[in-house]
Amino acid sequence: MKFILILLLGLPFVLGQSSPKEKIAVGDEAPTFSLPDLDQKYVSLRDFCGAELRKPWINKEKHVVVLSFFATWCKPCMAEIPHLEAIARDYVNRKVKIFLIDVGEDLQKVSEFINAKKIELPVLIDRYQTVAEKYDALTLPRLFVIDKEGMIRKENKGFSDPQKFEQELVKVLEQLLR
User: pLDDT tens across 118-163, in order?
Assistant: First the structure.
């Protein structure tokens, strides 16, 4: 009886042990996701990059993908967005997709904010922060550049120097588009 009791008391401890969550890093495969946009149409990362595209009849060519995690209350995020929009305009006819991913806010609040600020980048809603957790993007802003094969090639935490930010992002985009 004692043996069974020890076994039962110890079992949750043994089963509960798992390796600590590894943080993703440059060189890792980007975690896949599917999130709703402001029109509640789902967008998947694999629609644009990865070993195989999810819907190759829609998007015939792979893209470099930039993900910027943000929130409407985040002042550094608001400083970063105009620079992302400028880069998006410069790359409009190239195989680059830039997405803003709102972390933890509801659709109506984000939609009203985006419309009021006249933000033109596509916005995805991560209401329950599941994608932000996968990307370890719980401090904002957090940016990732993903190559055409779905590998993370750049990450950036925070936003402070606009000129350096743009130069570094453009450099990476140019390298990945070669």
Answer: 999 999 999 999 999 999 998 999 999 999 999 999 999 999 999 9
CA 13 to chain centre: 34
Q: Take residue 8 and report the two structure tokens written for it.
A: 């039962």
Q: How far apart are CA 59 and CA 143, in angstroms?
A: 23
Expressed in percent and rounded to 5, the helix, strand and coil fractions of the chain are: 35, 20, 40
**Which domains, from first to last, does the chain contain?**
29-177 (3.40.30.10)
Please say whether the beta carbons of 29 and 151 come within 8 A: yes
Cα 159 to Cα 108, 116, 119, 142, 168: the distances in Å are 26, 22, 18, 8, 12
Residue 8: pLDDT over 60: no
**Cβ atoms of 83 and 166 closer than 8 Å:** yes
| 3-class SS string, 11-25 | HHHHHHCCCCCCCCC
Task: Find the radius of gyration of the CA atoms of the chain.
Answer: 19
